[in-house]
Structure formats: C-alpha cells, structure tokens
Amino acid sequence: MKRLRSHFKSTRLARNLSRGDLARLVGYKNISRGANRIVRFEREGIIDDELLIKIAKALKIDWATVERLAEQDRQEHVQAWTKWADEPVPMRLVIRLMAAVYSECRLPEAITTPEAAEEYAGGLAKQRGMSICLVLNRRQSVWIGADGTVLKRTEATLFGGRNEPWMQIKGRRFLLNFEPEL
User: Fold this and answer.
1) Which of 9, 33, 50, 97 could form a disulfide with 42 if both were Cys (CB 3.0 to 4.6 A apart)?
2) In 10 A of CB 24, how many CB atoms?
C-alpha cells in the first residue's frame, strides 16, 4: 500500500497535522494509541477498513482516490509477486527430520527434470522413512509421505505465502542448512 499510505501521509503533512492531531480528529480518546496506529499505516500500510475510512474523512480525501491508489498498489504487488514467482530457482528437497524440524537439501546434479526429481524424492522418503517436500519452483511443490507416496501437490498463490515447510522462532522463518547423510 505504498501509494495509498504515502498519499495519506503527504496530505496529513500538507495540512500541518501531527499524528496526534489526526488521532484526535478521528475520535481516539487514547491519542497515543491512535497515533501509533497511524504510524503503522504510514510506515507499513497496515490499517483496518474502519480507521482508513475515518482518516480519509478527516483529511478530506475522496473515496474514489482511495480506491484508485489501493488498486494501483494491488496491481503493483501482483506484478512484483508474479515476477518473483516466475524467476527460475533450482529444484530442492525439504526433509522433515522430526516434528517441526526441517532441513533443506539439494538434489543430485544428475536430476534435471521434475519427473526424475519426484521419483528420487519418493524413493528417498521411503528408504529413510521421512516425509519430504519436493520444491519444484516457487509456485509448485510435491508433498511426499514417509512411505514414498505423493500426498498432495500444491501451488503457491499471491496471498498464500510460502509453498513449502519452514521452521519459525520469534516470527522468523528458516530452514536448517545442513545436509543429513542420505
């Protein structure tokens, strides 16, 4: 929401309003809390619809402008995501070592096709008794059970997040980078 939040911020500044002043105008009794929500919107674009409407009215920004800027931001986001998702990346395995613990692993160099990668991953999963996610590209993954059978095929979507397993500590997502002896 870069365009939308920038427009709101520049309008607020052009009217010589502090965030606290704007929080008062939209009806916050706790000015600090309201100002913090406005900061979050101006910096990160995070805002609920009700507050967005109130701020637009307080700053006298017509709703057609809000919708136009939001649509431009949405289209820009879709284009950036599509470019990122279509960028070629090497196929790889994400192996479940134990509950909630995953390790990223490269495929042998001789494996160059999705079909060969799926066959290899299925055999490895069955041999080791481990679940594996075969990441074909940034859009498609094949989830293979510990018995070597394909459990599901998934495709990443614009707002669906990552299409592979990960670990998370304090909001940071990651995978282990060691290669287990296979």
Assistant:
1) 9
2) 16
User: Cα–Cα distance between 131 and 124 in angstroms, integer?
Assistant: 9
Give the Cα separation of 37 and 40 in Å (integer): 5
Q: For residue 92, how many other CB atoms are within 10 A of its CB?
A: 17
Q: Identify the pLDDT of residue 175.
A: 84
Please indicate, yes or no, whether the overall pTM of this predicted structure exceeds 0.90: no
CA distance 115 to 136: 10
Rg of the chain on CA atoms, in Å: 23
Q: Tokens representing 18?
A: 């502090």
- Dist CA 179 CA 37 (whole Å): 44
Query: What average pLDDT does the segment 27-31 reach?
Result: 96
Backbone phi, psi, residue 134, to 5°: -90, 110
Per residue in 85-138, pLDDT (tens digit) is 999 999 999 999 999 899 998 899 999 999 999 999 999 999 999 999 999 999
Token readout for 117 is: 């990668």
